[in-house]
Specification:
By secondary structure, this protein is mainly α. The chain has a single domain, classed as Glycosyltransferase, CATH 1.50.10. Helix content is about 55%, strand content about 0%. The protein is built from 18 helices and 2 strands. The chain has a two-stranded antiparallel sheet with strand order 1-2. Helix 3 packs parallel to helix 7 and helix 11 runs parallel beside helix 13.
């Protein structure tokens, strides 16, 4: 009986080893390469089409409503319980300013060779100018609140960021009255004292916009914001949000993209802050490398810190560096495109992301009201548009034209031999 049992066990082990042998012979790297060959290969053209569908689905309710002066009448105000009335004072400016800041590079880009995309772009260019016209016209039912509440300096800055990113479409092509109203509205936010944190860059962004377009501007607000952020630098590409370090995505939501843009905007007028360029750029490249590595093989990123309801807006900095064609050497445009496409398509498809009328709801992956802080409302959510900056690149650019590539974590978790990662000093 014992010899029969031993023979049975030997037979089972032999069978198991033979069954497992092909799996052991197939290395993780080979598995990744084989899976990539067997899976449908999405081209850059297909990825761009997917991005544009997301752009249209997110943008259409906001742009259509304000272009018809119906934003206040139709946009819901979802907010933390008991804060709906307070957030209603700022949520409409949030929706417009944030949405346009992400759309701006695409609105500004040269016409391409896709007639369908060009029709959408021309329509949205006109709607965007109407949004500025009606949003800054005191007589419009959709006049936005500038300077009347603390939040307005934040979203006036995102609107200023949009104007800087799209000088032709969102400044030069504005009619004179709209341009005058825009300047007046932005000036009103000087009444707001920004917090001693990333908010300093909101005031700086508005002044940088004035500088770029020949308006009277306050150098002190820019100098103070830039110098304080150098003091708040914590190392390895990360700034503190004020004196303390916060493990969240504010280096991407605000700090690094706005520092880069402020420095660019003033550079044609003064070289006063040129000494910061090398350090700010080196840190920006490092943080872009970190952001790319944070995207998991499944197209997710860690839900760490506050303002997670901005969804894929957390990737603004990575998008910014791709749009600037200034990614770190270890990161290719094609792998950024693949990683960002994975994140956006996953998040946008989560059930409950949109309400029945097509407006964004509070959440990270779907509708998750408890994830919204007291300062979050419907308009806040449109900062997700910040991920769309690479749409400002022509379809012939490597970002869109190169074959798809796996991003860093996808390669690493598949056993591909990847280079070591290193911190930067300074």
């Amino acid at each position: 009986m014992q010899s029969i049992q031993q023979a049975t066990r030997r037979g089972f082990l032999k069978s198991a080893l033979l069954t497992a042998a092909p799996l052991a012979a197939r290395s993780p790297a080979a598995a990744l390469l084989q899976d990539r060959e067997n899976a449908p290969r999405r081209t850059g053209k297909e990825d761009r089409a997917a991005w544009l569908k997301i752009v249209e689905r997110v943008s259409q309710p906001v742009l259509e409503a304000i272009s018809q002066q119906k934003l206040r009448a139709t946009m819901p105000v979802e907010a933390a319980k008991g804060h709906e009335q307070d957030r209603a004072q700022s949520t409409h400016l949030e929706a417009v300013g944030r949405l346009l800041s992400g759309l701006a590079p695409w609105l500004e880009a040269d016409p391409g060779n896709d007639p369908e995309e060009e029709r959408l772009r021309r329509r949205y260019q006109e709607m965007a100018r109407l949004a500025i016209r009606y949003g800054t016209d005191p007589k419009s039912p959709d006049a936005l609140n500038f300077g009347s509440n603390q939040q307005s300096v934040v979203d006036a800055a995102f609107l200023a960021l949009a104007i800087v990113r799209a000088p032709t479409q969102l400044w030069e092509k504005l009619d004179p009255a709209a341009r005058e109203n825009l300047v007046r509205a932005l000036v009103e936010t000087r009444n707001i004292q920004p917090g001693f944190n990333n908010w300093l860059l909101f005031s700086a962004m508005i002044e940088a916009c004035f500088c770029k377009y020949g308006q009277p501007w306050d150098t002190m607000r820019i100098d103070y914001a830039l110098r304080q952020h150098q003091e708040w630098y914590k190392g390895d590409g990360m700034y503190g949000d004020g004196p303390e370090f916060h493990w969240d995505y504010y280096n991407s939501f605000v700090i690094q993209p706005m520092m880069l843009t402020v420095l660019d905007a003033v550079s044609t007028v003064t070289h006063r802050w040129a000494f910061l360029n090398n350090a700010v750029t080196a840190r920006a490249r490092r943080y872009a490398a970190i952001q790319e590595r944070l995207i998991s093989p499944e197209g997710t990123y860690p839900p760490i810190g506050r303002s997670l309801a901005y969804r894929f807006g957390a990737l603004q900095h990575l998008a910014e560096m791709a749009w600037r064609r200034d990614l770190p050497e270890s990161v290719t445009p094609a792998q950024v495109r693949a990683a960002m496409t994975a994140v956006m398509t996953r998040m946008i498809a989560a059930p409950g992301t949109f309400d029945a009328q097509g407006w964004l709801t509070i959440g990270f992956a779907g509708h998750q009201p408890s994830i919204g802080e007291t300062y979050i409302s419907t308009g806040s959510l449109y900062l997700c548009s910040a991920a769309w900056l690479p749409l400002g690149l022509d379809t012939s650019d490597e970002f869109w034209s190169a074959p798809p590539q796996p991003w860093t974590s996808k390669k690493a978790w598949s056993g591909v031999d990847i280079p070591t990662d290193h911190a930067i000093i300074g």
